[in-house]
Write a structure and sequence with these properties.
10 helices; alpha/beta; Rossmann fold; 6-stranded parallel beta sheet
Length: 294
């Protein structure tokens, strides 16, 4: 059986590590991974050379500038990684007849909605991070490459830095924490998102099916505030830390966040026949993984 060769960019990041942990479940897929140390994607010539050598059927782009607050004062680097690099990757994929799976964010929305956001809803980011990610989406769509843009929200896992690991670390030294309760979305386990990405890549007719490129939403089922999320983390990990609900105003940050950025995932569930776990169930799985590492 001829395998589908995937080229993973950003392999050292949280999601990249999740994809590498899950790919063994897909017999038809062959994954060639590159971390930032192995390949600087901001260098177009180097990227072109490696893609020519690898000859991937599909490129999975997990490269991103994700420091939401830093993006407010460092928009140049945010746009470089979240837009310019995406445009370069899309152009190279088009030249090599490769497909592209690119990860985006719920922060492309302004958070003023009253129901879960659909893929067709107007994107109107409130910060530089979301704006740079939206610019990357538009660059991919304008390139004409076969591909999928996958928007997700509140990503966490046993890898990298994320909200779950931060809460567990803080709970070791504090008996009480104030956590924002008026921002609502869906916490998403990186291993679940990795499964969705690999399921997409596992389509034998990927390039035909996703020409023109398509936008999907993927997040775990259910909704939560950061306060709900923190309470569940401590409940499932048996941490005695008490959580107090606070407002966004009480915890000012350089970047505005959308107050409500729940994503409607009906399209990907229907098109890929993809079951999506409930966020609390996935959180339990992640904490079990973390417990075995400690």
């Amino acid at each position: 059986m001829k395998k589908i060769k995937l080229m993973l960019l950003g392999a050292g990041g949280q999601l990249g590590q999740c994809i590498q942990a899950e790919v063994g479940q897909f017999a038809a897929l062959e994954l060639v991974s590159f971390s930032h140390q192995q390949l600087d994607v901001t260098k177009l010539a180097a990227l072109q050379q490696v893609m020519t050598e690898v000859q991937p059927a599909i490129v999975i782009n997990c490269v991103a500038y994700t420091a939401v607050d830093n993006a407010e004062t460092d928009p140049g680097n945010a746009y470089l990684l979240n837009c310019d690099v995406v445009a370069d990757i899309a152009t190279l994929c088009l030249q090599q007849d490769a497909g592209l799976i690119h990860i985006s964010t719920d922060y492309v929305f302004n958070g003023q909605h009253y129901r879960p956001y659909q893929e067709s809803d107007l994107a109107a980011p409130v910060g530089q991070y979301g704006a740079s990610k939206l610019a990357g989406e538009q660059a991919l769509l304008q390139a004409g490459v076969a591909g999928v843009i996958l928007r997700t929200s509140w990503l966490y896992s046993e890898f990298g830095n994320n909200f779950v690991k931060t809460m567990l670390k803080l709970a070791r030294s504090r008996s009480q924490l104030g956590v924002v309760a008026d921002q609502i979305a869906s916490p998403t386990y990186g291993r679940d998102l990795a499964q969705a990405i690999l399921t997409l890549a596992n389509q034998a007719d990927f390039c035909q099916r996703f020409t023109p490129a398509k936008v999907y939403h993927y997040a775990n089922q259910g909704v939560a505030s950061w306060f709900d999320f923190a309470k569940a983390i401590f409940e499932f990990s048996n941490q005695p830390c008490q959580v107090q609900a606070i407002t966004t105003e009480a915890y000012p940050t350089p970047a505005r966040r959308p107050a409500y950025s729940v994503l409607n995932t009906a399209a990907i569930r229907q098109d890929l026949q993809l079951p999506i776990p409930y966020w609390r169930d996935s959180l339990r799985r992640c904490l079990t993984e973390l417990a075995t590492e400690l």
